[in-house]
Design a protein that fits this description.
By secondary structure, the chain is of the alpha/beta class. It is 54% helix and 14% strand. The strands form two sheets. It has a seven-stranded mixed β-sheet, with helices on both faces. A four-stranded antiparallel β-sheet has the order 1-2-3-4. Helix 4 (119-127) packs parallel to helix 9 (248-259) and helix 17 (442-454) packs antiparallel against helix 19 (525-535).
Length: 538
C-alpha cells in the first residue's frame, strides 16, 4: 500500500488588519508570456496617443468657441466641464460592456477618430448655417467625451491579469496624464500655427484610426475572425482622414466663404488669432477671430478720428510717438503724416499681422508702405508686459487694440494697464484710445472712460460715425486737465475738418454716462459688459 503524504500545515491565521493573500491569477495570464508583456507596453503607447488626441479635440472645441462666439473663459469653461463630465459618463457606461472587449475597444477608437476628426470641419461649416451653433459645439464635446471615457476602462480590463492591479492603474494613468501634457504643449506651439484648426482635427482623427489599425495586430489573439473587418474599417477611416487633410485648405476656404459676405482672399491661423481678409466690390476687409477690424472703404474715418485729436492735443507737436496695437499700419500711416514726428514705436503682439501689413499688396498700398519708413520701429510683444519693462516717455500714444471681447484683450483695458500708460506719457503729451461704440455698447464704453480716470488720466470722451461700424467711441486723455483741440492739424485729411472735430466731442443724450464698475485685472467687468451688450445686436 502506498504511503499517504503527511497532512499539509494549516494556513497561518491572519489578523483583522492584515488581509488574506489574493489567490494566484496564473490561469488568467496571457499564455504568450513575454509576448504578453510586449503587448502591454505597446498598449501603454496607445494610451499616450489616445490621451493626446482626446485633449486636442477638447482644445479645438474651446478655441473654435472662442474664435466664433467670443468670451474665451466662458467657452473653455463650458467645454472643459462638459468634456470631463462626459468622460465620467463614458467610464460608467463601460461597465455594461462585458463581452468582446477587444473588438469594442477598437470600434470605440474608430468612433473617436470619426467624430473627433470631423469636429472642426463640421463646426466651421455649421457656424454659418445653424441657428444654435453652441448646441452643436457642445454636442460634439459630449460625444467625444463619452467615447474617450469608454476607452480607458476597457483598456485596463484588457490588460487585467497581466500585471498587478496597482501597477496597471498607475501605469495607465501615468501615460494618460503625460499624453495630456504633450497635447497641451503641442497645441499652441505646433498644431495651431503649423497645421491650423481643421487640419489638426483631421490629423488627430488619422492618429486615432492608425491606433485602431495597429490594435488589430496587438489584440489579434482576442479578436479572432472579426479582425479582418476591423482592419478594413480602420483603413477606410485612416484613408478618409488623410484625403481630407489634403483638401483641408479648400474646405476651410469654402466654410469661411459661407461665414463672410465677400470672398475670402487671405487666411492665416497664428498662435494668437485667426486672420481673414475678404474682398468685395467696395474694397477689402480685415477680420480677426471673425470680428471686423476695418473696411478699406471707410477706415480713414476711424483712423483719422483715432490719431489726429491726440496729435493736436499735445502741448507741442509730437516728436516721439508710441502706437500700441495697430499692426495693420493704418494708424501708423496717419502718425507719419505729421512732419514733426522723428520716431515711432509700434508694439503689436502678432508678427503675422505686421508681416501681412508689409507683404499683402492691397494693405501695403492702403497704409502707404508705412513700415518701410526709417522712423518706424516694430516690436512684436505683449503691450502690457512691454510697457512695464521698457522705460521712457512719448509725446503721443495711440492705443488701437481690438475690442475687449475676451479676457486676454480685456487686460489691456484695465486700471493696471492705464497706470502703466500714464507713466509712459510725457507731461505735455496726449493719448487716444479706441473704446468700442458708446451707442451699441454704452456701459462698455463708459467703463473704459471711468477706468482711465481711475488710473490717473484726465479724459475727454468723443465719437465719430464710421459706416462699417456705426457710431464709434474714443477717449482722449492727458495727465493734466485740458480742453479738447479746436483745430485739426495742417495736413491732408479726408474726413476731419474743424467743424467735424468739434462735433466729435458732443455726446448725444443716448450716449451720456451711465454707472459702471472700474475694470480691474481680477474682475474684468468690461468683458462682461461687452458680451452682454453686443449679444443684443448679433
Amino acid at each position: 500500500m502506498a504511503e499517504l503524504p503527511p497532512p499539509a500545515d494549516p494556513a497561518p491565521e491572519t489578523t483583522s488588519d492584515e488581509p488574506a493573500p489574493r489567490p494566484a491569477r496564473a490561469a488568467r495570464r496571457d499564455p504568450g508570456g513575454s509576448a504578453g508583456r510586449i503587448r502591454a507596453s505597446a498598449l501603454y503607447l496607445n494610451v499616450f496617443i489616445v490621451a493626446i488626441c482626446g485633449l486636442v479635440y477638447e482644445l479645438l472645441a474651446g478655441t473654435l468657441g472662442s474664435y466664433l462666439l467670443g468670451d474665451s473663459v466662458t467657452q473653455f469653461s463650458l467645454v472643459i466641464g462638459l468634456y470631463l463630465s462626459a468622460m465620467g459618463v463614458g467610464a460608467w457606461l463601460s461597465r455594461r460592456l462585458e463581452t468582446r472587449l477587444a473588438q469594442r475597444f477598437l470600434d470605440i477608437e474608430l468612433a473617436v477618430a470619426v467624430v473627433g476628426g470631423l469636429s472642426a470641419p463640421v463646426l466651421f461649416l455649421s457656424f454659418g448655417s445653424v441657428a444654435h451653433f453652441q448646441i452643436v459645439l457642445l454636442g460634439f464635446v459630449a460625444a467625444i467625451g463619452v467615447l474617450v471615457g469608454l476607452e480607458l476602462p476597457l483598456l485596463m480590463r484588457l490588460l487585467e491579469g497581466q500585471i498587478a492591479f496597482k501597477d496597471l492603474v498607475s501605469r495607465v494613468l501615468t501615460f494618460d496624464y503625460i499624453g495630456a501634457l504633450a497635447a497641451a504643449v503641442m497645441f499652441p506651439l505646433v498644431l495651431v500655427p503649423k497645421l491650423g484648426l481643421v487640419r489638426s482635427s483631421l490629423a488627430m482623427g488619422a492618429a486615432n484610426a492608425g491606433i485602431a489599425l495597429w490594435g488589430t495586430w496587438l489584440l489579434r489573439e482576442r479578436l479572432g475572425a472579426t479582425r479582418t473587418g476591423l482592419r478594413i474599417r480602420a483603413i477606410a477611416v485612416l484613408a478618409g482622414m488623410l484625403v481630407a487633410i489634403g483638401f483641408a485648405d479648400r474646405f476651410t476656404t469654402w466654410a469661411e466663404d459661407e461665414m463672410y459676405a465677400d470672398p475670402v482672399v487671405f487666411t492665416e491661423t497664428t498662435p494668437y488669432q485667426r486672420i481673414v481678409v475678404t474682398r468685395g466690390r467696395a474694397g477689402f476687409q480685415l477680420f480677426l477671430n471673425g470680428n471686423l477690424q476695418f473696411a478699406s472703404a471707410d477706415e480713414y474715418r476711424y483712423h483719422e478720428a483715432l490719431v489726429h485729436p491726440a496729435m493736436a492735443a499735445a502741448d507741442a507737436a509730437p516728436r516721439r510717438v508710441l502706437i500700441l496695437g495697430g499692426g495693420d499700419g493704418l494708424a501708423l500711416r496717419e502718425v507719419l503724416a505729421h512732419p514733426s514726428v522723428d520716431a515711432v514705436t509700434l508694439v503689436d503682439l502678432d508678427p503675422a499681422m505686421t508681416r501681412l501689413a508689409r507683404r499683402f499688396p492691397a494693405l501695403g498700398e492702403l497704409n502707404r508702405q508705412a513700415f518701410t519708413d526709417r522712423r518706424v520701429t516694430v516690436v512684436n510683444d505683449d503691450a502690457m508686459v512691454w510697457l512695464d519693462e521698457h522705460p521712457g516717455t512719448w509725446d503721443a500714444i495711440i492705443v488701437d487694440f481690438p475690442d475687449p471681447n475676451t479676457f486676454a484683450l480685456g487686460k489691456l483695458y484695465t486700471k493696471l494697464f492705464y497706470r502703466r500708460l500714464v507713466a509712459r506719457l510725457s507731461p505735455g503729451g496726449a493719448v487716444s484710445v479706441q473704446a468700442t461704440s458708446p451707442l451699441f455698447a454704452r456701459r462698455s464704453y463708459w467703463c473704459i472712460i471711468e477706468t482711465m480716470r481711475a488710473a490717473g488720466f484726465f479724459v475727454v470722451p468723443y465719437q465719430a460715425t464710421v459706416p462699417s461700424f456705426g457710431v464709434w467711441g474714443y477717449a482722449l486723455a492727458r495727465r493734466v486737465a485740458f480742453q479738447p483741440p479746436a483745430h485739426v492739424p495742417r495736413i491732408a485729411l479726408r474726413f476731419l475738418n474743424d467743424a467735424a472735430l468739434a462735433a466729435m466731442f458732443e455726446m448725444p443724450a443716448d450716449m451720456t454716462p451711465v454707472a459702471v464698475e472700474i475694470n480691474q485685472l481680477d474682475n474684468q467687468a468690461l468683458v462682461r459688459y461687452y458680451e452682454k451688450e453686443w449679444r443684443r445686436w448679433e
